[in-house]
Structure formats: structure tokens, C-alpha cells
Amino acid sequence: MLNTVPADRVTHSDLANAVRVLAMDAVEQAKSGHPGLPMGAADIATVLFTKFLKYDAADPKWPDRDRFILSAGHGSMLLYALLHLTGVKGMTIEELKNFRKLDSKTPGHPENFMTPGVETTTGPLGQGIATAVGFALAERMLNAEYGDDLVDHYTYVLASDGDLMEGISQEAIALAGHLKLNRMIVLWDDNEISIDGPLSISDSVDQVKRFQACGWNAFRIDGHDPKAIQRAISKAQKSDKPTLIACKTTIGYGAPKKAGTSKAHGEPLGAEELAGAKATYGWSHEPFVIPENIQAAWAKAGKKSRRVRKAWEDRLKALPQDKRAEFERRAKGERPAALADAVAKLKDRLIAEPQNVATRKASEIALEVITEAVPELVLGSADLTPSNNTKTKNLTAISPGNYAGRYIHYGIREHGMAAAMNGIALHGGYVPAGATFLVFTDYARPAMRIAALAGIPAVYVMTHDSIGLGEDGPTHQPVEHLAALRSMPKMRVFRPADAVETAEAWQMALERTDGPTTLALTRQNLPQVRKEGDAKNLSATGAYELSPANGKARATIFASGSEVEIALAAQKLLAEKNFEARVVSVPSLDLFLAQPEKVRHEIIGDAPIKVAVEAAVRFGWDSVIGPDGIFVGMHGFGASAPYKDLYKHFGITPEAVAEKVLRTHNL
Ligand SMILES: Cc1ncc(C[n+]2csc(CCOP(=O)(O)OP(=O)(O)O)c2C)c(N)n1
């Protein structure tokens, strides 16, 4: 037995030092990692976890837990040490010893899909704090629906200098301040050090003033004084605004030479500094060994909200059966059966009364019924609501202090929107869908990438999807974006051709629970190309034969979205010349390429000439048409003109397609 002092006599320093040494030992063993942040921020985290955090290590997914988000993901060992010490199942000391090893639960940066107790993937600085805005907003929105008895928790963030320097932090804090998300509390590890050295070489922002200007309650404390930290968090909890607590700390706290320098940031301390730091703490135990009394005190902290959790479970059980089942369904992220019925009925209606509309309008038509069937669907837009057609008549917008609603005006903050959507989805209870122009996915992409990596089912409604937007010109006309998004692992991209495919794409997007979906939609009107009813979701394989050849096909024309109309017209022109072609609609190229070989071969067919038509760059289409296939699309940036002129100018016309097919045939 290492120590027989009872758990209650363990001091704050003992608890914080346990976190520090575990982080130091793990980084040392891995021969890589970031010891400085855990050593510096251990006091803050210890006060939070032992005195405030509503958290039960036995059920890290309990819906009404407080959320803790380590925005500075490089300090991952801080979080892993806390999860281990509080007793999260599976977070054994072996996992800490395997820090940064393949298949461990302790990857270099926190990944919510690998480690129990990790709320979100962080690492790209700024993402955590921006994702936290979504967590805090979802908490308030769900509270507005279900009341304090079921939803009543805080969102805590530990952020570093880098988090606050990143541009996305401005979008995030402005949105949180505007919406008065007073349950969001950011603890800033204000250590004035980054990789290149003291922060003063690159930054002179007064963060407290910046946050205050954004509608936050913000003040400074000594981040190594547990009483001050405790007072600050208590004060923050009572604020009517979100709070920034600037905690002045020393990076690598306790290391004799490296403390307070960038040398403590991102490399193992080395034997001498490690021993020196442990001596500073008065820590004489072997690596990875925590005295039993300290372990017991941490385990107690891990259980401190157990009674609160049980009382919450009792309240949930006491609800009427249907209300409880609905809460549980949404918390689990299961979709309602009504979704498929709603889409099937809509498709029947569209077949009976075809709609020649832009697919952004078709999306609105779909949303009118889908929002009724899927109460957890929360829509929003980065200031382009009238252009994106995302606000259906039945949706009301939330506003500061009033969170009863299902529409979010994110402001002109594409990146902040996408990150907040991640938080809304990860919080549970909601499926977020957010909109802007397809070209501005560039502005949202880092958060979209987190969604893909972390398996977050968010939906991006990206309108104005090609040169078809016309006069706004090349700055607004995406050409490489479809290829870029399709190349992102686990991102699914739909570019529907008409109202029926748009309904099918929405169904696919919402039935998906393991990753994000982008819907690329047109500004310009399109004819409805699906005229015959089919109960099956034909878009589910990513591509399908829309219009067969009248006999044996000598060419197959593949097209997506607005170019399907062009493919069909080209098929007609060719038929007039007794040349038989078939048309394959490709609403999702990436989904199609992921089909089993047999399915792909069947749909691609054996016609000797293959053509792809898409008003975007060729990249990706060779997988379908081969390197010798004909591509009719964009070869550079677009131009500013009415869209019909642009299609002619860039040669994306039925005549051009037919002419190229015949020329190839006659070679
Ligand atoms: C978007 C992004 N850019 C760059 C990095 C690489 N990086 C990791 S930590 C770091 C410096 C962070 O300094 P700070 O936030 O002050 O953390 P501390 O030194 O206090 O640990 C950088 C540039 C990153 N993780 N994310």
C-alpha cells in the first residue's frame, strides 16, 4: 500500500499533480506529445472536475451531463488523465501507457469516436471552442423543448492561445455572445506561450476586451489558485452572458528550466526536467503510479454526480411513455419511421404534379414535409436564407434568450456555422442542416472535415452549385468544389437533377447517422426528369439508368444535377441521327463509386463510348468514363454572364455532347 491517508485528506495539489505526472509520464513513454498544457492547466481542470462538472464516470454519455471540451486538443493527455483518474470504463492505465499508439484509446489528439468521455474531436485549433457553441446552443434548445427537469447543463471549454488566435474563434464567440449562451464557460489557459516562443512576437490582442465586446462576461484570474478558479466558475455559472475566464498559468508548470517557455509545449520533457518537475511537486512515485488515496479521491470525484444522474433517470422514467420514448429516440440519434413515409408520399405527389423548379426550391418543397416528419431537424443558414430556401413556413427562428425554435440565423459565419453544427449534432437530440453557397464550402471546410472524420451526421445545403448561378461570376461559381468534397473520406455529396432526386437525397442525408452529407443545389430552374413513380430510392446507389437506349446503346451519357437535362437532350439529338445512347443520372458520384463492383459494372454498362457531363472540373469522372472518355464540363474558372450564355460559352450544351460523341464514333 503506497499511502494510507484517507481520500478526504488529499489536497488539491495532490489531485492536480496526479494529472500532471500522468501526462508527463505518458508523453515521455510515447516519446512525443505535449506535456506543457496539462502541467499548466491541471489546476483549472482539477477544480472543474472535482467541484463543478456534472459528470458520472460510470455513464459518460448520460444526456444531461455537463460537457467538457478540450479545445486545445494537443493537450490530450490532460483529458485522458482525467478520464482515467475519474474511472471511465476502458480508460485504464495501460491505455495511458499506450498514448499515441495504434488502436489505443489515447490517440495524439482527442477523437470522440475512439475514446469514451471525449465529447468531440479536437486538434485543429479553434474547432473546439466553435463546436462548443453548438453544444451550448443545443442544450438551450432542448431545454426549451423538454424543460429543466431533463435538460439543464453547462458547456465548459478549455482553450489555449492558439484557439483564440484562430479566425474561427471570432465567429464562434460573436455568435455565442449574440445568442446569450450563458451556460458556455471558457477557461482560457492564458500562458502567453506558443510554439514559436512568447505570444508577444505575434499577438497583442486584449482577449478580455475582445470577448467583452462580443457580449461576454470576461475577467482574469490566477490559473494556479484553486480558490480563485472556484470563485470564478461559480461567478460564471450565475452570469446572464457566456463567460471567459482568463486563467494566467505557466506552461510546463514545475519543470525547472522549461516551465514558462515554448520548450515545454510539444516535446517530452526529458529525464532531467521530468525528475526536476516531480521534485517540485514533491512526487516520489514510480512512473504511472498514483498513490491509492489520491486515486480514491479522484474516483470519488468521478462518482460525485451519480445521485444526480439517478434522480434524472427517475424523472425521465416518470414521463408519459410517448414523451419518454421520443426523448430517448432523439438522444440515441435514431431517425423517425415517418421520414420514409413522408418522402414516399412527396415523390408520389411530384410524379402526379411535376415541378419544374430549381433544386434549391425542390429542397424547400421536400423540407416542408420532412421538417414535420423529423422534429429533431434544425435548419439554418449563414445569412443567405432567402437564397438557400432553408426556412420553411413551419419553422421559427431562435433568438437571444428564446431558444424555442428550429431555425438558426448563423450570420455571415460559414466556418462558425459548420463547427456549431458539429456541436449541435454531437450534443444529441438534433440533426443540424446549415446552408450557404457551394463555393463557400471553402470557408466551412475545416469543420466539415471534422464532421467527416468524427462521423457527425450534419447536412450542408449548398446552393448556387455551378456556373448556372450566372451573373455573380467566377468568384461565386464553384468549379472544383464538388471534386474537393467528393475526395473527402466519409463526406457524401449529392447533386440531384430534379425535385424527385432532391427528395431522395434529403432522405439519404437524414437516414445517414454515421457521417455528413452535402447537397449541391441549383439556383436555376430545372425540368423534372423523373416522370415515373418508383417507391425505391433510386439515388441510393449514387447512379441509375434514367433513360435507356432504344436498342443497343452505343454511348452512355453520365450526368449530374442540372446537366442531366442536357444529357437527355443530347440523347434525343443522337437518336435523330440513328445513334442510340443511354443516360445515367449520377446524383452522387462518390456513393456510386463506393458500390460493389457488380453494381457499378451494371450501371456503367458496356457501350463503347462514355461521356460525362457536369458543369465542374473533370477530376473524379475518369473512374466512370476512363481516361479516354469524353468530358463535357469546365476546364477553368467561370465568368460573369446570364447562365444560358455561359453554358453556350463553355460548350456545355446538348449539341456539343452529341457532336463529340459522333466525332469519337467516326474516328
Ligand atoms: C489550425 C491549427 N494550426 C496549427 C496547429 C499546430 N499547433 C499545434 S499546438 C500549436 C501552438 C499552440 O500554442 P498554444 O495554443 O498557446 O498552446 P500551448 O503552447 O499553450 O500548449 C500549433 C501552432 C494546429 N493544431 N491547428
From TrEMBL:
Superkingdom per UniProt: Bacteria
Cofactor info, note text: Binds 1 Mg(2+) ion per subunit. Can also utilize other divalent metal cations, such as Ca(2+), Mn(2+) and Co(2+).
GO molecular function terms attached to this record: metal ion binding; transketolase activity
EC number: 2.2.1.1
GO annotation terms (biological process): pentose-phosphate shunt
Binding, substrate: 34, 265, 360, 387, 464, 472, 476, 523
Sequence ranges assigned to domain Transketolase-like pyrimidine-binding in this UniProt record: 357-528
Claim: Nucleotide-binding is one of the keywords in the record: no
Keyword hit for Magnesium: yes
Catalytic site: 414 (proton donor)
Catalytic activity: D-sedoheptulose 7-phosphate + D-glyceraldehyde 3-phosphate = aldehydo-D-ribose 5-phosphate + D-xylulose 5-phosphate
Sequence positions that bind thiamine diphosphate: 74, 123-125, 162, 191, 265, 440
PROSITE patterns: TRANSKETOLASE_1, TRANSKETOLASE_2
Gene3D superfamilies linked to this entry: 3.40.50.920, 3.40.50.970
Subunit structure: Homodimer.
NCBIfam families xrefs: tktlase_bact (TIGR00232)
Family recorded in the similarity comment: Belongs to the transketolase family.
Protein name: Transketolase
Natural source organism: Microvirga guangxiensis
